[in-house]
Amino acid sequence: MHEREYLTIGEVAVLIQKTPKAVRNLMSRGVFRDVVHYFRPRGSTPLFKRDAVIQWVEGREPVSQAAGKRGRGRYSVDLSLIPSVDTQNRLGVLR
């Protein structure tokens, strides 16, 4: 039997033995992450990568080029890269 590479929310729900609403909740909480576990083709509902879902079930994190992304467009930021402002300088010059 040929298994599909991409799954709908309903198919993921069956695969992980949850309801479609539970899958959507996992998406909104950032457990299933955009680009890592699923993507949204233009004009379509989310499609999940079967391999990424299976890795999640097994407790392994899928490897992705977007590993820093944290669902709903939130990114991990290294704050040390942001220049600080010298509060003693009244001109607000960056140091």
List keywords for this structure.
95 residues, alpha+beta, three-stranded antiparallel β-sheet, 3 helices, 3 strands, 7% strand, globular
Instruction: Tell me about the largest β-sheet.
Output: 3 strands, antiparallel
Helical content stands at 25-40%
* Estimated radius of gyration: 19 Å
- Record the strand order, biggest sheet: 1-3-2
N to C succession of SSEs:
EHHEEH
Structural category is alpha+beta
What number is the mean pLDDT?
A: 78
The gross shape turns out to be: globular
Distance between the termini: 62 Å
The poorly predicted ranges are 65-72
Instruction: List the total number of helices.
Output: 3
Q: In total, how many beta strands? A: 3
Range of strand content: 5-15%
Describe the structure.
It is globular and about 55 Å long. β2 (38-39) and β3 (47-49) form a beta hairpin. It is built from three helices and three strands; from the N terminus they run βααββα. It is of the alpha+beta class and 95 residues long. It is 26% helix and 7% strand. The model is unreliable at 65-72 (pLDDT under 50). It has helices at residues 9-16, 20-28, 50-57; strands spanning 6-7, 38-39, 47-49. The protein has a domain at 6-66. 14% of the residues are buried. Strands 1-3-2 form a three-stranded antiparallel β-sheet. The N and C termini lie far apart (62 Å).
